[in-house]
Design a protein that fits this description.
Rossmann fold; alpha/beta; transferase; 14% strand; Glyco_trans_1; Glycosyltransferase family 4 protein
Length: 373
């Protein structure tokens, strides 16, 4: 298969921009392609471009450019729309709700319609998109293999933690009462939030807090949890979400307690790779069980890391390659059959020196676009 020339526009330099654009572009370059992530959509496109990728293209200026490129009579490159959220079902508490209301939501739909293909994170989101554009490819969120050999820092006290963005306010409100009950009865357990501090919602306004770091490796290296929590409210928007929190925690060997809903229902094997909460009182029960049993924490953490090994970007870059080749009408590869989890893990140490570059390409992305982390 010949190398591809790919231009990818990242809508931000936060979680979505890095995971969905910066990291795949980095991996595509390592695989021998000529790929670039950039911050301005209406750039001068090279004549030998193969694929133009646009992440949640919306807004008047961006939409005008996207639509004009789609109408070009001389266009020889494929246009791929990247979206990782159901922007038409945002909860009212989500900061992006107002940004995607009305005309913007319609712009997203119109821009998906004229694309040659769409990439999404989950099968459920793919089903949401296919009525708009039937040519959809699922490219799941992945992480850099170097994290599999990273020794995470350890806090002085047993720590329950969470990392993520402001879109999860509704999720925390849904479980705040139950988490508050656990921490009230277990004051010896510490809490650490990264990205947004939800400590006040669970009776811990003095929780340790670390700001978001745009470089994915630096961000993941700041995680020092012994236990990770992943609350997800029962809402239509969350059905399309990916299992990213579980994936992040698992890559570091951190056991997770997560809502038995959406992506976590499918990804987590209860009692093997994590614990799932079906009923509200189980938050306290599961956190108490893991807090009191270090052997159980270690076992679930090891199992989760073994599961995560199949989701490295190194072992999955073929998914992006196949999506782009198929959209161009070119033969695809062997579906990554030669990429095993063992191979990905064994090469992780050698690649760790390069890993810090994996998200740098998207760091200057357009801050005017609404963030959906």
């Amino acid at each position: 298969m010949r190398p591809l020339k790919v231009f990818a526009w990242a809508k931000d330099h936060h979680g979505c921009g890095n995971y969905r654009m910066g990291l795949p572009v980095w991996a595509l370059n390592r695989a021998g392609h000529d790929a670039l992530a950039f911050s301005v959509l209406n750039v001068d496109l090279p004549s030998d471009l193969d694929v133009l990728v646009g992440q949640i293209v919306a807004g008047q200026t961006q939409t005008e450019f996207w639509q004009s490129q789609a109408r070009r009579a001389d266009r020889s490159f494929a246009m791929v729309y990247e979206i990782d959220d159901d922007v038409w079902n945002l909860d009212m508490t989500n900061p992006s709700h107002r940004a995607f209301a009305g005309d913007v939501g319609e712009q997203v739909r119109a821009n998906i319609e004229v694309a040659d293909a769409v990439t999404v994170t989950t099968d459920y989101l793919a089903e949401r998109i296919r009525p708009i554009n039937p040519n959809v490819f699922v490219t799941p969120n992945c992480f850099d293999a170097s994290l599999l050999t990273h020794e995470r820092p350890r806090a002085e006290k047993l720590t329950v933690g969470w990392a993520g963005g402001s879109s999860h306010q509704h999720d925390f409100l849904a479980v705040a009462k139950d988490l508050h009950a656990f921490f009230k009865r277990n004051p010896q357990v510490d809490t650490h939030f990264i990205g947004v501090n939800h400590g006040d919602k669970i009776g811990r306004p003095g929780s340790r807090f670390s700001p978001w770091r745009s470089n994915l490796v630096e961000y993941m290296h700041s995680v020092d949890f012994d236990l990770g929590i992943a609350p997800l409210a029962y809402h239509a928007f969350n059905r399309s979400k990916s299992d990213l929190k579980f994936l992040e925690y698992s890559s570091l060997g951190i056991p997770v307690v997560a809502s038995d809903f959406g992506p976590y229902s499918e990804s987590i094997i209860h009692g093997v790779t994590g614990l799932k909460v079906k009923h509200p009182h189980e938050w306290a029960r599961h956190l108490r069980a893991l807090s009191n049993d270090s052997a159980m924490r270690d076992e679930l953490g090891r199992n989760a890391k073994s599961w995560a090994a199949i989701r490295t970007i190194q072992a999955n870059v073929w998914r992006w390659e196949d999506a782009y080749y198929a959209t161009l009408g070119l033969p695809t590869g062997d579906g990554g059959a030669s990429q095993s989890a063992d191979a990905a893990q064994s090469s992780a140490a050698a690649e760790s020196a390069d890993a810090a570059q994996s998200s740098a390409a998207a760091e200057s992305a357009d801050a005017a676009q609404p963030a959906l982390v």
